[in-house]
Structure formats: C-alpha cells, structure tokens
Specification:
This protein is of the alpha+beta class. Helix content is 32%, strand content 26%. The strands form 2 sheets. Strands 5, 6, 7, 8, 9 and 10 form a 6-stranded antiparallel beta sheet that branches. Strands 1-4-2-3 form a 4-stranded antiparallel beta sheet, sandwiched between helices. Strand 8 and strand 9 form a beta hairpin.
Length: 250
C-alpha cells in the first residue's frame, strides 16, 4: 500500500487513503489536468443512482463496475456499452452486482461509473502505457489498444522525457501507424494530437515520480483528435521503487 498521486485540487482526498490504485475517475482527472481529453465519468454508489446519472448525462451511456480489486473490468463482465434507457442501466448494474458478488465474493464493490458513449465509430483504438523498469525507470509504451491488446502485441517503447520528434518516431515504429495515416475513405488520424498525448504523459512522469504504472486503453484517435475512454494509474510513495532518492529519469 502507499500514497496515491496528488490530484490537482483534490490531493488531500486521495493521499489520505492507504492505497496504490487510483479509481478510474481519479485517473481521468489526473489526465485531464495535463490536457489529455477524457470522456466525462460520473460515479454512482447504487444501481438506482447509476440510472439517474445516466439520464442526466444523456444516452447512450457505458456502465462500468468500480472496484479497487478488479483491474480488467471487461474480463469479469464489468462493462456494458450502448445502454439507451434508465431501466437498462439499472438492470445492467443489478446484474453486474450479482455476478461479481457470486464470482468474486472477496472483491469490494465501490459502485459504478457512468459515462456517455463517445460517438467516434471510425476512430482507432490505441494504448498509451507506462511501466517502471528496475534499471531504466519509467518506460513509455504506445501501440494498438482495445481488449485484444495482449494478443495483437503491436507496440513500441521509449524512455521519457518526450518531445514531438521522439513521439513521432515512436508511433512510426508500430504497425498501427500505417492505419493512422489513413486509407481508402478513412481520413488520417490527428497524429499531432497523439504525439501531444505521449508528451503530456511524459511530463506527468517527470512531475509525479510516484506514478509507477499508467494505462490509457483505449485512447480513441481519428481526424477529430484523441479522447481517453478508460484510464488506470498506480502510484507508490517516492523512494519505494528502488530508484535512489526517488530519482527515476536520467
């Protein structure tokens, strides 16, 4: 366990808890603070509240389980997309609650997240990630995202800090780069926005040495720009990563 990363304007609320994983809404707040576009995500404690929030946000919406013990939500039936009515949201939340209680009784269910569906049908699903190497420190990852990210294994890695030239070179080392350049009637994705996301994540690592893991998956990218649909951040107290004095960057 350990202190989580300080959120802009809300540091005391996160640092007071003895945990490492930020919730999805917290992680998105961190990304938004660094200028990375995110989908608005609201937190509901109960199925009824989830249905009420969905009506406020506007349909269609996505419903996700909120639990510190469940990292890959889609693997446990913790994600339902394209819900168009309040009743559908309530029923999906109740079903999700029952399923998880039966299959993972030890998991703490903190509630649900509700977000409006991003209407970007022709966008590419990408992943931007961070891991911490014992020798090199934080390592950036970029590649094709989505639920099959491990199967496709199309990614490139680089060390921060990052600039526009380095970001472009990193993206160009992936297979998905060929698709991002556009094909047939599909326009090129906004490569500058993707590069900027890598630079912003790199700057986040420079500023927040307690971050040891980060995943934006998927990061939707098309000719309109980028938007982070899901985010995960793990943080530990500075100095506990094996880096002398918390210094991670060369």
């Amino acid at each position: 366990a350990g202190a989580a990363v300080a959120l802009v304007g809300r540091s005391e609320a996160v640092l007071a808890e003895d945990r490492e994983l930020l919730t999805e809404p917290e992680a998105k707040q961190v990304l938004a603070a660094y200028g990375i576009p995110v989908v608005e995500t609201r937190v509901a404690a109960t199925p009824l509240e989830a249905a009420q929030l969905a009506a406020q946000i506007g349909f269609p919406v996505a419903l996700k389980v909120l639990s510190p013990d469940i990292t890959h939500k889609s693997d446990v039936g913790g994600v339902v997309l394209g819900l168009n009515e309040s009743e559908d949201v309530w029923q999906a939340a109740v079903t999700m609650q029952t399923r998880i209680a039966k299959r993972f009784p030890a998991a703490h269910l903190a509630g649900f997240t509700v977000q409006r569906m991003a209407q970007r049908p022709r966008a590419h699903e990408l992943i931007v990630g961070v891991s911490t190497d014992a020798i090199f420190g934080p390592v950036l990852l970029f590649g094709r995202g989505g639920t099959a990210v491990e199967v496709i294994a199309d990614s490139a890695t680089a060390l921060p800090p990052m600039n526009m030239s380095l970001a472009r070179h990193m993206i160009a080392r992936t297979q998905v780069f060929k698709l991002l350049k556009g094909y047939r009637d599909r326009p090129p994705a906004d490569l500058e926005a993707i590069c900027l996301t890598l630079i912003q994540v790199s700057q986040l690592l420079v500023d927040r040495p307690e971050i040891v893991e980060l995943d934006i998956n998927p990061l939707l990218a098309d000719d309109q720009g980028v938007v982070a649909l899901d985010a995960r951040i793990r943080a530990v107290p500075c100095g506990s990563t094996g880096m002398a004095g918390g210094k991670r960057l060369a």
